[in-house]
Write a structure and sequence with these properties.
11 helices; 26 strands; 5-stranded parallel β-sheet; 6-stranded mixed β-sheet; about 400 residues; alpha/beta; binds flavin-adenine dinucleotide
């Protein structure tokens, strides 16, 4: 096969969607170029563990070149894509121009602060390695500072940790942070009064874990309560100046730590493409995952907006991105054979969130689990999904 003569598939983004798409197209009669601004694939579901110093970044990041080296028709380019010309079929990445026959856009998402610039400036977030490491460094530093602070009010503010957003990421972060404090910090700082410590989880809606069934919301509240996390539902944050949170009812909370997990939107590049966007700035796609005016372009994962059979937007989840990647790769193979693309249908594998050690909530095969059984399911699934044998073993040892 003359590799230069076969169609060129460019995949932008090597996260959950892009990586799966490249693997599913490897071996097809195409030449593939995967472009990502990082040279590693990041397992984002465990970022909060980096933030609480439970894992180091290399345990959840895997080098892309090592993944692709066994595939002869896959090339990798570490570069930031700055623009796409859908009419002329090329992308610009750090000054290079790369032409494509088919494009898979899988650029993922980024934290959505809903225009609250002060919150973005002073708060912490969990989206990439840099933000998780910055959060971890701050948490370790603030305990050092608090241990030397003699003013009681100032020390209380240092030891008040506010997590905003009662979805799975906020719940997981709050539970893990509470455990870091009780299991590690309390031993590392034996002379500090830990009665001053507060971990608050703020949720603007009427319940944490809104997308979960009621029995699991209840279980989540109880598991968080058992770990001394204060859950504040119907509580909307409107500002944060680095020292004080202001709530919609006018009340304030003094804190030096705000971790924002309350919003996500598609990656910034999607704003510059001149294509219709929906909620969360995600790009509207056809049921086949194609861009309506450009059938050679497929958009998948967090960057894509598609509704399910009930008219609900597909969630921004790794499971959606991976299933869409398989469907997009399958459709490209079908088009190459002269067949029509098929619509995508999401198969919901269930819901799962951990709340510190030995506790989780799960909804699988129509059944709800909470506590230790759910946590075992969570451990097995996460270990299974982490890329690389070495990383799996290291993560297991660390957790043990
Ligand atoms: C803290 C956290 C916890 C999560 N927990 C879970 C969970 O438990 N279960 C679950 O199913 N989902 C979870 N998710 C969501 C899940 O990670 C995303 O839905 C998934 O990563 C989306 O896959 P994707 O391929 O669309 O994007 P990503 O996996 O985000 O990949 C996008 C890739 O595109 C690259 N990129 C972006 N812009 C450019 C550009 N301009 N040029 C070059 N490269 C670019 C990025 O570097 C990145 O590698 C979590 C997310 C976070 C942040």
């Amino acid at each position: 096969m003359n590799i230069q003569k076969v169609p060129h598939v460019v995949i932008i983004g090597a996260g959950f969607g892009g990586l799966q798409a490249a693997q599913k197209l490897a071996g097809a009669p195409v030449r593939i170029t995967v472009i990502d601004r990082h040279n590693y694939h990041l397992f984002q579901p465990l970022l909060y563990q980096v933030a609480i110093a439970g894992l180091v970044p290399s345990q959840i990041a895997y080098p892309l070149r090592s993944i692709f080296r066994r595939h002869k028709n896959v090339d990798f380019l570490m570069s930031e894509v700055t623009s796409i010309d859908f009419d002329a079929c090329f992308v610009k990445a750090n000054g290079s121009v790369i032409a494509y026959d088919y494009l898979i856009l899988s650029v993922g998402g980024q934290t959505n602060f809903f225009g609250m610039q002060e919150v973005e400036h002073h708060g912490f977030q969990l989206k990439d390695v840099e933000s998780a490491v910055a959060t971890r460094n701050h948490l370790l530093e603030i305990f050092e500072k608090a241990s030397r602070e003699v003013d009681i009010e100032k020390r209380r503010a240092m030891l008040t940790f506010v997590i905003v957003g009662g979805g799975p990421t906020g719940v997981e972060t709050a539970g893990a942070l509470a455990e870091l404090i009780t299991h590690v910090m309390a031993k590392d700082y034996p002379y500090m009064d830990f009665n001053d410590v507060r971990v608050l989880l703020l949720e603007a809606a009427s319940s944490v874990m809104m997308t979960y069934p009621e029995e699991l919301r209840k279980a989540t509240r109880k598991l968080l309560h058992d770990k001394s996390v204060e859950v504040m539902e119907n509580t909307k944050l409107i500002d944060y100046n680095g020292q004080q949170v202001t709530l919609a009812d006018g009340s304030t909370i003094d804190t030096h730590t705000l971790i924002w997990t309350a919003g996500v939107r598609s990656a910034e590049i999607t704003d510059r493409l001149g294509v219709p966007q929906a909620v969360g700035k995600r790009i509207r796609v056809e049921p086949t995952l194609q861009l309506s005016a450009h059938p050679e372009v497929f958009i998948i994962g967090d960057a894509a907006y598609l509704e399910d059979e009930k008219g609900q937007p597909l969630p921004m989840l790794a499971t959606v991105a991976q299933q869409e990647a398989k469907a997009a790769a399958h459709n490209i193979r079908r088009i190459l054979k002269g067949e029509g693309p098929r619509p995508f249908h999401y198969k919901d594998p269930g819901l799962l969130a951990t709340i510190g050690r030995n506790a989780a909530v799960a909804r699988i095969w129509g059944l709800s689990f909470s506590g230790f059984i759910a946590w075992m399911i969570w451990v097995v699934l996460h270990i299974y999904r982490i890329i690389g044998f070495r990383n799996r073993v290291l993560v297991l040892i660390n957790w043990a």
